[in-house]
Amino acid sequence: MNTDLERQIQELQEENRQLHQTLEQKTKVANRALASYQQRALHMEIIRQQNEDLDKLTADLTQARQAAEERVKREQAIREITTKMQTATTLKELVKITAEELNARFSAAYTLIELGIEEITANDAVGNGY
Prior knowledge:
By secondary structure, the protein is mainly alpha-helical. It is about 80% helix and about 0% strand. The chain has three helices and no strands.
């Protein structure tokens, strides 16, 4: 009976050793899988942050492009108005063209044009070579 018990003990010990080996192998695999999962999760977080940064950059660039397009439109309108103003032959015609163009281009309810012309007296004209 001792030999049967010893044999059973040896079989149980061998089975226990095999179970320990299997457990160690599965633990290593599980640890590698967990490390891989954590690494992927970290990469996903980095990608998410980069996407947020790209979205903000895209919004900033879109806003800058729109502002630049508006500036170009304004500058083009000013050039066109200036060209039309240069066709005026009298001060009255210059003021009329300027007011009409400003009203039309910039949807102004009214236009105030300050000419900045100083009044010149006869004495000033003679003394300053006018």
